[in-house]
Each structure stands twice: as structure tokens, then as C-alpha cells.
Specification:
The complex is a heterotrimer, with 1 copy of chain A and 2 copies of chain B. By secondary structure, chain A is mainly alpha-helical. Chain A is built from 7 helices and no strands. Chain A starts with a helix and ends in a 33-residue tail after the last helix. By secondary structure, chain B is mostly helical. Helix content of chain B is 44%, strand content 3%. In chain B, strand 3 and strand 4 form a beta hairpin. In chain B, the strands form 2 sheets. Chain B has a two-stranded antiparallel sheet. In chain B, strands 3-4 form a two-stranded antiparallel ribbon. Classes of the chains: A mainly alpha, B mainly alpha. Chains in contact: A-B, A-C, B-C. At the A-B interface, loops of A face strand 4 of B. The structure holds calcium ion (2 copies). One calcium ion binds next to loops of chain C.
Chain lengths: 150, 469, 469
């Protein structure tokens, strides 16, 4: 637990650092770091990558389409810095849970993205207080080899 | 898709507009799907909830479960009791069913007509106790066949969910439930009607008021059969009929879907609502709406389940049957055991009247156990999912029903033999007698509709000769 | 889990290497986790499967379920019968338990020592029928306390799963199961031992061969309690003991985890294997390995479940309890009903010997029903998940057990009263008698360990005075 909070501080600090960097980095790097392949470069992301790929459903879109705010460029970059740094720090510090779960903030971001792309589809229903994936459990990444069996 | 979300159109529906046609002008898609509850559903998809499928056959619950004909004998439910058809037929079925069922009168419109609340406020007991046909006559002509309607579930202002049933408000007060989340509202919309109730009576069993819910002692997510039975046995106001075979004054239980489902079922605990499974979103062009053609998910090819579950529709269907087959097997065990106890009570009564020395201690104990067995049996029989809504609780309730019924049986055999009356190993049930020539339609036993024990264990307890069919 | 699977190093383990230490040199991570089955598990996480947790308390099944002390009275299981401890203690527990349990001798090592197969091949009946201590003495000294071992489940060549138990091969032949998929192998590894069995006997109940499985008539995914009972009642070879109270010659049932789980449970149908829940992948350094510290998933904080379920560990734990509480409630209903029938049979026997006219027809019918009730009760009692492995099937089997037990009871009361013997409403069970001073350790009733009916219904059927505790 102590380690976890330590991690958060480090992430915060790292975030600021990375932000300033990002402001000046060539767009090539930004593209690189937006590719699912990049996320998958880390084995902790492999499970999610596999399912994202296998379930087909959203293979046409990128991880960041769901996991980063896409309402405006600045917000996108800021959170790319923060989340990115958090991931990097966690990875190299090795301090992260066996079973990774999305933070509250991550969930908000994701849902906003669902609605962003499917706004017309859900325009008639009340999207209220419920995560889309409480029904659309496929878009989560916890599928196992037994799914889709006849 | 590109276009901007279209907010719910407010203010286009007049206050207290009862006619769905009018609501449909604003929300044509939901209206059209609501109209579809009139259409028969595909035949052969559901194993135990047939009835008004494309074969247009009506299914007779008393032929499906023959012991029920013996147990319900004495009032309407023992005459004609069918599998439900669909919301469109709510009132139509009341009109078409044997009139012994509608004896209670106007109060029976509580969960059928959207006008019930207003009419109770306006006309009180005059309406509630009016003969059923007369009460129906009080409704606006064009609305005399209109069942569950938009206004029952929706606010006309923002289409938010609401309730149009005072008995539900009274029930919620009994269990001390106040704020209702949106997901809970997707349950309460159905709990307006898919709950057990009693029509309060005076000592002559005449209707004494509006519908009441036997929820005393319960709480949200925890209305147990034990609570319900304790409530129903408190006083004469809950005693609605006299059971012919035993001569006992009895309460009754109907469609407790809400009570069974919310008692810690896996889906309830997972935050799933009735509407998730019975009103799944349906694609309609480039957007989706809630399907208002409420029916068995099996008859809708389990589309409702597909988004939450990755298993195939076949897998899900078979899993539903795994639970339902076991429920039907235990139902027959509990049903025939209760019927057997009832016949022994009948025998004890006749012999006592003929002067035999029936031990009162044993007899009263047997009667107590019998009531416990009967009400548990009716609870699961009247619940419409054959256990799927809550498999572990269904097994518990039926196991207890079997235990109580058999306890009554042992004590009765003991007192009978003591009084010099011998009894064959398997009590003769004479079921044919209770199934033949029922009501004005002279309904008979429809053998092809009977549900046999899927595990074929019942024949040991009830050999054909004892069954008498 | 996020880590890489561990590379398999081939050819480093000698053929027929029995010693896990040697395997551990090649696969230290699995070896270390395997050693952990020796460690006590966290206290207070499991509600019904306590035993050898950090409080180091051993739990006495006969105190947890007092009626079992009456029913199992007559052989070892009625003397000392504990909740399991962990793989490390497989042989140790046999040595420490009351020696009435190990009477059968060498054959008891079948699921305890990895040498069993080899010794049966080498020494045959001499080893199988040897006194337990002597049989143990035949094993290499350093392996006399080594239970389930690498070689029981693994090929030394590629670490693929295999079986080291001939009784399983015979069982699979009985149900006609041939090719085993990898996922099925993750079940079969456990099915080597977590299955019911019988030790074949001659007419004097002396051991007559190696362990056998009562699976006649079953098939893969469908070994029903009905099949098992039919098999067990075929002939004297399956009759292992005489029940003291009734004087009946009886078969028995043990830990049928495999049989219950594979009978169409939701997890089995979903393709889940024992190892998925009891040996989940665990990160160990930068590797992920199958956790060989096999125990209750509740004591491992339901880590295993998280790979498939998105609900919280608390949600999952409570859902397990929802099922287990109901199983325990029905178990007490079935257990006490069976015990009550047993006492009435005892009474009928003594009175018959004293010359009373016990109706043979009723008595034989009661005996038949009693056997059916007893074996169903033992099936669920001996199964170690309290219903979680298959909730709907558990409810069905217990419901039937209750029905059969009560059938026996009514017929017995009828014949007793006929013979002029009166019986109190609740049969006196005299449980204290069966629980006090058991075996060499003079074990007594441990009240604090008893499981009370979570729904508090049993007291109606078995008031304290009848219980006699
Ligand atoms: Ca229907
Ligand atoms: Ca244990």
C-alpha cells in the first residue's frame, strides 16, 4: 500500500515532466505511441491486446480511442502524458497488481468514448447511471478461451 | 454515427392521457413494439411457458400440473387457469375466462386497466365491489380492452419511469423502501403487477377494499416466502377461499416474480433488471429502443442475453432448461405430496364425522404442516420462470414444501390407523374427478399438455393407479 | 495474469521418479507452491469448509452435522470423520485418524501414495489386503508421508497431464470416455481422487481387490446419483458396512466432486475446469505458474474467479454463500428426516423381535425408500462444495432425499401403530449417545462446530428434545 502511494507521487511528478516533453515532440512519436502495437509492447497489456484483437468487434479502432479523452486535442495530450507516465512508472517499478483494473477516471473516459462514437445508436435511450459494458461485456478484456463455444 | 443525440421530446403528451394511441404519435417505435404483444410468439422455443404461440393453443395449467386441479378445487383457479398470453390480452382474458375467476369484481382491474387508480379515487367501494362486467362498463368504451399502458410505467413529461399502482406504493411502505435508482425502476415497472397480492375480505369473504401486498416483515431484496406466509396467516382479511377437499379456509399466492427474483438471485445481485431481459434494446434503424413486446426471452431467441453473455443462444437456452427441468421435477414431488396429504385430511374428516376417534393433537399438527407445504408449493407454481429467476431459492422452497407435506402425511397416517382406518401405501388421488367437466366450458383433462417428471422419479411416489388419470 | 508462461524443460526428470524433490529441482516454482499445501490457510474466509486454518483447529464433520453420527454409526466414518486439510496431509491424516477408518488396509493408499499403482502391479492382493501400517511400511522410508505428487498428474517427459490411477482408467472405460482434451485433462487430474469409489468385498466384507468406481450406466458429463445408486445396489461386492441403528448392510459414497460438477453444472457446461478455480495462474517473479497450493478459492481471496468475473471478490464470496446456505438448510432437512426414519426402523426391529406384528409389506417398502434417501443424503454430504459446484442438481438430489426419507417415515409410523406401538410426533434421536466417547480418542460432541440451519426451519421438524443433544 505504501508502495502504491509512492507510485502515485512518482507518476504525478513524471507526468509533469512528460507533459513538457510532449508539447515539443515530433508528431511521429505521437502516432507511434497511439498504435495498439505500442501498448502491446508491454506484456502487462498483452491480455487486453489479445482480447481486443480476437473479439474483432473494435479491431478497427485503437486503444487510445477508448482510453484517452477524445473530446479535444489538449485534454487528449494531457491525459496521454499522465496515463502514459503512470503506465511506464508502474511497469519499470514493477509495482502493479496481478489483476489490473480500470480506475474510476478510466471508466469515465471510456464511457464518454462509447457515447462519442455511438451517440446516434444510444440517442433514444437513457444512458443514465450505467456503464455500457455492464451489458456489452464483450468490450471488456476479460474473455477466456471458453467464450463463443457452441 | 454522426448526428447529435435527440433528447426525449417533452410536453407533447397531455397530462393524464390514458390512450396509448396518443403516446404513440410521439413515440411511434415503442408504440409499435407495444402493439406486438398481441401477436402470437414462435412455437416450440420455450419448454414450459407455452401458450398463445403461433399454434394459437391456450395451455391449461391444471392439465399441465394435474395435482393443482385437486388442490385449487373450490374456487375459480380450480376451474380455469391458463398460461399467460401477453399484455395485450390482460383484460380480454378476464372476459373470456370462466366467470368464477372474476367473482371479486372491479378490484380485479387493478393490474389490468390503467384507469384503476383513478376509479378507486373517484368511486371507491362502489367500483371495487361492482360485478366485474359492470366495473368494466364504467371504463371509457374505447379503453375496455386496453391492458398495461404507457401511463402505467411512464411520466408523460420526460418519459421517466413511474408507477400508476397504489398497491405498490403501499407495499413499498411496508418494506420501508424509499429512493428508487434507475436500475431499480426498471424492476419496479414490472413489480406493479408481477407480485403476489390478496384482495382483502370480510368474514363472509366479500371484497372489503383495494388490492394489498402481504409483505409485512420483508425488506428490499429480502421478501421471503416465510414473511409472506406469516403475513397471509395473520387474520381473516387474507382468507380468500375454502379448499373443497380439506374444507380449510385458505389464503392464496399469485405470480410472485418480483419477490422470488429479488431474494438474492444471482442476476438481481448482479444489478440486472426485468427490463434487461424482457425489454432488451432492439436496433431500429440507426438507433436502438427498448423492445416493448414483452415476452419470454426464449421466444425472442435470447437476444437480451447475448450482450452480457458470450455463450451461444443454444448454450443459454439449454442452461435455462437445466434449471427448469429440475424445478419441474421437484414441483411434481411437492405437488403430489401435498395432494396426498389433502386426500388423507379429507379421509380423516369423513371418518371423524362418522364417529372415528381422530387424535386432535396429531390432526392439528398435520393441518399446520399442510398449510406450510401448500403455500410454498403455490409460491413456486405461481411464479412464472420455473425456477430460472432464482434457482437456489427455488430449490430451498420446494425442498421445504416436500418436507412439510410429508410431515402432514405421516401424522395423518398415524392418526388414521390409530382410529382403525387403514390406508393403501400410495394415497388414491382420484384426479380424473377434479379435471373433468370444469366450469361453463366443461373443460376436461388435456393429456397432451401434462408435464411429466423430466427425471421420471415421481412414478415411484405416485403410481398411475394412485393418480387416477 | 500479466506474466509469461514458464518454459518447459524436457528430459531432465528420470522415468518413474517418484520424489517431488527431484521434480522440484527442474521446476522449483511449482514445487514451492506444492509444498505450501502444508501451510494452514487464513481463518474466517470460508463459512463451511473450515479445518486446518491458521487457528489450527481440526473440524469434526460428525459435530458439524450431528445426525451423521447416528447414520454412520457402525464403522469408521461414525467414529472420526474430519474436514480435509490439504494435499500434504493425505497420508498423515490416515495415520493420525482413528484406526477404525483404515481397517481396509493397503487399498487405502490408492489416492494417497503415488506408489499405489506400481505396488498393486508388483505385489497384488498381498499389498492391497495388508494391514494399513504394514502396507505403509512397504513404501520407501522417505516417501511414507508423501501424498499427491508430481508423478500422479504429470508426464516426466513434457510435463503434460496424465493419470497414475488405474481405478480412473477402469472408470473411464465404464462410461466409454476415450480422448481427453486439454481442458478435460485439467478436470481429470483431480478426478483421479475426487470421485466416489468402493472397495470391492467378499461376502464377509473382506477386501477383495483394488478400488472400483460405481459408474455403470453413466456417460461423460452425465453420471447421475441414480446411476451410482443402481450400481451400488447390484450385489454384495459393493456392500462395505453394516449400519448399527437399522442393522442394514450398506454401500457408501465419498467425495463425488467430479460426478456432481460434471453433471451439467453451469461452470462445467461453460468449459471451466477444477484447475481454473483451484490452481489459478499466479505471478511468481516474472513468470506465471499454476498455483499448486490447492485449496478453497475463498481462502485464496477468489483470485481464480477474477480471470473470468468482473464482480468484486466480496460479491462472488457472498454469491457462493447464497448457494451454500441453502444447501446446508436442505441438508439438515434431509439428514434429520433420514435419521428419524432410521430410528423408527430400529424401533420396528426391536418390537418385531419382541413379537409385534410388523407388516412385512410396509416394512420392505419403507426399507427401500430409506436406502434411496440415505445414499442421496451421503452423496451431497460427502461432496465438498456444499452445492456450489452444481446448485440446481444439489437442490434436486436433496429434495428427492427428503421425499424418500419421509415416505419411509410415514410407512413406518403406519406399520408401528398398526402393531400397537405408538410413536411421539417428533421421533427421539438420542444423538448424544452417538456423539459421545467415539473411538480411542474418546471424541465427543463439539457444540461450537455444529452447523445450525441458516434459515432456522429445522427446529420445527426436530425440536431440541427430539434431537437429544
Ligand atoms: Ca405465453
Ligand atoms: Ca480444509
Amino acid at each position: 500500500m505504501i508502495q502504491m502511494t509512492w507510485k502515485k507521487y512518482l507518476a504525478g511528478a513524471g507526468a509533469l515532466a512528460l507533459l513538457t516533453v510532449i508539447a515539443f515532440v515530433p508528431h511521429g512519436l505521437l502516432d507511434q505511441t497511439s498504435k495498439p502495437a505500442f501498448c502491446n509492447a508491454c506484456h502487462p497489456m498483452h491480455a487486453q491486446y489479445e482480447v481486443w484483437f480476437l473479439t474483432g468487434l473494435h479491431r478497427g479502432i485503437k486503444c487510445v480511442d477508448c482510453h484517452l479523452p477524445n473530446n479535444n486535442e489538449v485534454n487528449h495530450l494531457i491525459w496521454k502524458g499522465i496515463d502514459g507516465t503512470k503506465d511506464v512508472v508502474s511497469f519499470f517499478s514493477g509495482v502493479y497488481p496481478d489483476h489490473i483494473t480500470a480506475t474510476g477516471h478510466a471508466k469515465t473516459v471510456i464511457k464518454q468514448n462509447c457515447i462519442r462514437c455511438h451517440n446516434e445508436m444510444v440517442s433514444r435511450i437513457s444512458t443514465g447511471d450505467r456503464d455500457c459494458w455492464s451489458c456489452h461485456r464483450r468490450v471488456q478484456h476479460n474473455l477466456n478461451e471458453f467464450s463463443y463455444r457452441e | 454515427g454522426p448526428s447529435e443525440p435527440q433528447p426525449i421530446k417533452a410536453g407533447l403528451i397531455r397530462d393524464s392521457e390514458f390512450d396509448p394511441k396518443e403516446w404513440g404519435k410521439v413515440y411511434p417505435l415503442e408504440y409499435e413494439s407495444w402493439l406486438k404483444t398481441k401477436e402470437p410468439k414462435p412455437t416450440g422455443k420455450s419448454r414450459y411457458k407455452r401458450g398463445w404461440d403461433t399454434d394459437k393453443i391456450m395451455y391449461d395449467k391444471l392439465s399441465e400440473y394435474p395435482y393443482a386441479a385437486l388442490l385449487y378445487n373450490g374456487w375459480g383457479f380450480g376451474v380455469e387457469y391458463n398460461e399467460p398470453r401477453g399484455h395485450h390480452f390482460a383484460i380480454i382474458d378476464q372476459v373470456e375466462i370462466d366467470q368464477s375467476r372474476t367473482k371479486a369484481g372491479g378490484v380485479c382491474l387493478a393490474c389490468k386497466s390503467p384507469y384503476h387508480k383513478t376509479f378507486v379515487e373517484k368511486h371507491g367501494m362502489k367500483y371495487l365491489t361492482a360485478k366485474f362486467k359492470d366495473a368494466l362498463g364504467m371504463l371509457p368504451a374505447k379503453m375496455r380492452e386496453t391492458g398495461p399502458s404507457c401511463i402505467d410505467c411512464h411520466k408523460n413529461t420526460d418519459m421517466g419511469l413511474t408507477t400508476n399502482k397504489d398497491h405498490l406504493k403501499r407495499g413499498l411502505k411496508l418494506i420501508g423502501k424509499k429512493d428508487i435508482s434507475r436500475q431499480e425502476a426498471r424492476i419496479m415497472a414490472c413489480a406493479q403487477c408481477h407480485i403476489t397480492y390478496y384482495v382483502p375480505r370480510d368474514r363472509e369473504k366479500k371484497v372489503a377494499g383495494d388490492v394489498q401486498l402481504p409483505w409485512t416483515g420483508g425488506s428490499w431484496g429480502n421478501i421471503s416466502i416465510e414473511n409472506i406466509i406469516a403475513d397471509l396467516l395473520t387474520d381473516f382479511q387474507r382468507i380468500e377461499w375454502k379448499q373443497k377437499v380439506t374444507g380449510f379456509d385458505m389464503p392464496f399466492i399469485r405470480h410472485p416474480e418480483f419477490e422470488l427474483f429479488t431474494r438474492q438471485s444471482v442476476h438481481f445481485r448482479a444489478g440486472v433488471a426485468c427490463a434487461d431481459c424482457h425489454m432488451p434494446y432492439r436496433r431500429s434503424g440507426s438507433y436502438k429502443i427498448s423492445d416493448h413486446d414483452v415476452t419470454s426471452p426464449l421466444k425472442a431467441d435470447l437476444r437480451a442475453c447475448a450482450q452480457c453473455h458470450t455463450e451461444s443462444a443454444t448454450w443459454l437456452k439449454d442452461q435455462v432448461f437445466v434449471t427448469q427441468d429440475r424445478t419441474v421435477s421437484l414441483l411434481s414431488r411437492a405437488g403430489y405430496a401435498t395432494a396426498s396429504a389433502a386426500k388423507l385430511i379429507e379421509l380423516a374428516n369423513t371418518r371423524r364425522d362418522a364417529g372415528a376417534a381422530i387424535d386432535p393433537g396429531l390432526y392439528e399438527a398435520a393441518k399446520g404442516a399442510y398449510l406450510q407445504a401448500f403455500l410454498r408449493l403455490v409460491f413456486i407454481s405461481a411464479e412464472n420462470s420455473l425456477g430460472f429467476h432464482n434457482a437456489p431459492e427455488t430449490g430451498r422452497v420446494l425442498g421445504d414444501s416436500i418436507a412439510y407435506a410429508n410431515r402432514a402425511e405421516s401424522l395423518l397416517r398415524q392418526t388414521l390407523v390409530k382410529a382403525g382406518v387403514d390406508v393403501p401405501m400410495a394415497t388414491p388421488l382420484e384426479l380424473a374427478k377434479y379435471l373433468a367437466g370444469r366450469g361453463e366450458k366443461k373443460l376436461g383433462f388435456r393429456r397432451e399438455q401434462e408435464f411429466m417428471d423430466p427425471f421420471d422419479t415421481q412414478k415411484y411416489f405416485t403410481p398411475p393407479v394412485a393418480k387416477g388419470l
